[in-house]
Amino acid sequence: MNIQKVLKMYVRDKWGWFLIPNIMLFSIFIINLIVSLFITTKEQFYTGGVSYIFVYMLVMGILVVAQTFSYAVSMSVRRTDYFIGTVAMGSIMNFSYGVLLLICSTIENWTNGWGGKFHFFHFPYLNDGTLLEQFAIYFIVFINLFFLGFMISSFYRRYGKKGMVYSALIILVIASIAVLLIHYYAAWMDIFHWFATHTAVQIAYWLIIPTLFYIAFSYLFLKRATV
């Protein structure tokens, strides 16, 4: 089993997994905090800058296969071990970032927006539940995006550019048909009502299903992918 070898390979990449996301996240936070100091309104000030870290995890999931798959296989790492090691590393890192956001959100709430009603980590609805529920939301969204990126990159490794183009066209057609059907049957209000009657954590739980599909399909693609 070369799973430990895969994990060590990822740990060596401190910039990609640790430094870049944290530097960028807290740089954006500090910039937004400074800007908030010049806003004299008494209302709560919200910013969506924290979304960067979620997008980064999607991108990281895409890059991980492109940057490490060929190298790992050339080092006699079995594809199954590479897959398990990548899933383990992605889960560990997303767990860690979920804890980080939970801590920052809690501190922000306790300090009433860092003393100036500035909200970067803590938002209504998203953070209305218990601490465990808030963490579940962060973690599930993180792994969903990471493994979506992982599946996309694995698919590209298996089927190449043509496969990506064909799949993009198929997804576009399916999405267009779905929108037309929803509009035809006037189902938009039903969809909005469904979201309105569920908490953020309840909606997040639904993301577990596609996440499991992403992981399963990633494995199937990598098993037959070219190096």
From TrEMBL:
<keyword id="KW-1133">Transmembrane helix</keyword>
<keyword id="KW-0472">Membrane</keyword>
<feature type="transmembrane region" description="Helical">
    <location>
        <begin position="51"/>
        <end position="73"/>
    </location>
</feature>
<protein>
    <recommendedName>
        <fullName>ABC transporter permease</fullName>
    </recommendedName>
</protein>
<feature type="transmembrane region" description="Helical">
    <location>
        <begin position="82"/>
        <end position="103"/>
    </location>
</feature>
<feature type="transmembrane region" description="Helical">
    <location>
        <begin position="15"/>
        <end position="39"/>
    </location>
</feature>
<keyword id="KW-0812">Transmembrane</keyword>
<feature type="transmembrane region" description="Helical">
    <location>
        <begin position="135"/>
        <end position="156"/>
    </location>
</feature>
<feature type="transmembrane region" description="Helical">
    <location>
        <begin position="163"/>
        <end position="183"/>
    </location>
</feature>
<feature type="transmembrane region" description="Helical">
    <location>
        <begin position="203"/>
        <end position="222"/>
    </location>
</feature>
